[in-house]
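Exercise 7. Given the encoded structure of a 512-residue chain, write a plausible sequence.
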């Protein structure tokens, strides 16, 4: 027994050995990290006249940023486990729909007409085909029978828009294209209707929303991965751009604004204390930095409008805005009073940033959009009761004006009205206005729980961004507006809950 007792002593020395190995690993990690920081700092130091200042600021910010990333990663892991534990049938279908949106090449409209089924198009059709097949199977098996939801409420308004688009194939300037795009959008709306019909509580809509926002974050991560691989293409004209897959700077700016707005809402919630602060602070900084570097004017304007709306509905955010204004306003006033040159210089920098080195004509024409829209409306005046066929602007307008590489009219409203006239415009507008109405009622309504009102506030901020974008981009009418659809789904939940079960705090499947 004495021998056995003595033999236990060497075993206790294992803990110091493990501690020594961890110390070595941490030391090696810090050395490698320091080397990476030194290399990056050296690169920026010689890159321009202000490179040394950039490098110095980078070195100072590196330690707190690295600490924030580590803490954010610790917050992210439990959230990822929750996602995997709540995986449902629609998660992979929503992901496939997102995958079908990815673009790996840009081609002219004439090339699309000559060879409509290239490799990228086939991948897109395969993803959408699988989603359509899955929905048909679930409809036949009544899991659930979602056909009723396709033509009810806010989702029903989008369904009627799809019907108008399909009918316009009969007189379209390019019938095969109109038919394909219309049925593609119908599959998207049908998936939305199926999710709404199968939802058992408001938490299902939160999962849908969070899953959609995850796509935006993943897309931005890929954009940043492309920067060191394709530095020239990734900084197209000094603007952050996606290379593989192709993402315009406008899309990058919109993704950054989405992440920043969601993170801001969750960092300063309407009720209670914030959770996972490190993660949402990182997400806010990541989204804001991406948005600024994309130099997307409408995304930046939409972000500001979203922040103002959050402040209007959220008392904590309103107090913060007032306090910041009380501190900053006197400083600006004093600076302007004593140094007008500083104010003029700041104004020049702001105007230069807004103009993005474009000519005055380019800025005034909204980067050429006004010419496209004018010609499109001219075509509509020749076909006021029918339009030119849904999604026909690419061939009837853009190809004719020599900008066939642009696939869309860069305005939901122009796209919809010249394609389907008022037949498509009315239900399309009704869906958007209805979403606004029911989300505002949800935020202001005492019949909803604090968590439900908080989610509605986040969606209002994003809906404001999408509404502004819709005048300058195709955000809600082009395959596939997943963020807009997730917002419409929650607004539909609020509508049905108010109508059928005003006293219940949870939505029930029999109402949804």
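Solution.
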């Amino acid at each position: 027994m004495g021998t056995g007792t003595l033999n236990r002593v060497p075993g206790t020395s294992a803990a110091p050995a493990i501690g020594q190995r961890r110390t070595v690993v941490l030391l090696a990690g810090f050395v490698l990290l320091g080397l990476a920081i030194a290399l990056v700092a050296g690169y920026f130091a010689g890159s321009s006249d202000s490179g040394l200042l950039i490098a110095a600021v980078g070195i100072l910010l590196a330690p707190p940023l690295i600490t924030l990333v580590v803490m954010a990663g610790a917050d992210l892991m439990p959230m990822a486990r929750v996602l995997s534990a709540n995986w449902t049938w629609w998660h992979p279908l929503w992901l496939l729909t997102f995958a079908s949106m990815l673009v790996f090449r840009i081609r002219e409209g004439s090339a699309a007409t000559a060879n409509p089924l290239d490799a990228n198009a086939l991948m897109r059709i395969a993803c959408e085909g699988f989603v359509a097949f899955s929905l048909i199977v679930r409809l036949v098996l009544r899991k659930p029978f979602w056909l009723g939801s396709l033509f009810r409420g806010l989702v029903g308004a989008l369904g009627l828009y799809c019907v108008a688009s399909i009918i316009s194939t009969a007189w379209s300037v390019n019938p095969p294209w109109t038919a394909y795009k219309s049925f593609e959008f119908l599959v998207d709306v049908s998936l939305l209707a199926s999710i709404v019909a199968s939802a058992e509580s408001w938490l299902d809509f939160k999962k849908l929303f969070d899953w959609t926002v995850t796509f935006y974050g993943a897309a931005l991560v890929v954009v940043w991965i492309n920067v060191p691989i394709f530095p020239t293409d990734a900084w197209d004209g000094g603007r952050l751009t996606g290379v593989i897959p192709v993402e315009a700077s406008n899309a990058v700016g919109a993704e950054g604004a989405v992440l920043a707005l969601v993170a801001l809402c969750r960092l300063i919630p309407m009720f209670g204390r914030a959770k996972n602060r490190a993660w949402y602070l990182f997400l806010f900084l990541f989204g804001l930095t991406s948005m600024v570097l994309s130099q997307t004017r409408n995304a930046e304007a939409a972000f500001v409008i979203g922040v103002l709306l959050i402040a209007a509905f959220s008392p904590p955010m309103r107090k913060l805005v007032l306090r910041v204004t009380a501190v900053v306003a006197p400083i600006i006033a004093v600076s302007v009073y004593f140094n007008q040159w500083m104010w003029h210089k700041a104004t020049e920098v702001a105007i230069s940033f807004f103009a993005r080195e474009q000519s005055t004509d380019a800025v005034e024409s909204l980067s050429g959009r006004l010419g496209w829209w004018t010609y499109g409306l001219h075509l509509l005046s020749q076909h006021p009761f029918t339009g030119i066929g849904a999604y026909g602007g690419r061939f009837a307008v853009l190809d004719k004006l020599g900008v066939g590489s642009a696939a869309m009219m860069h305005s939901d409203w122009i796209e919809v009205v010249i394609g389907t006239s008022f037949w498509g415009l009315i239900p399309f507008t009704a869906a958007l206005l209805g979403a606004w109405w029911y989300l505002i009622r949800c935020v202001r309504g005492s019949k909803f729980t604090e968590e439900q009102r908080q989610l509605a506030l986040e969606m209002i901020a994003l809906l404001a961004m999408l509404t502004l974008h819709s005048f300058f981009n195709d955000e809600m009418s082009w395959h596939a507006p997943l963020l807009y659809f997730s917002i419409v789904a929650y607004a539909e939940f609020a509508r049905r809950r108010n109508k059928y079960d005003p006293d219940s705090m949870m939505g029930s499947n029999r109402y949804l």
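Remark. The chain has two domains: 28-85, 86-500. Students should compare their own answers with the one above.
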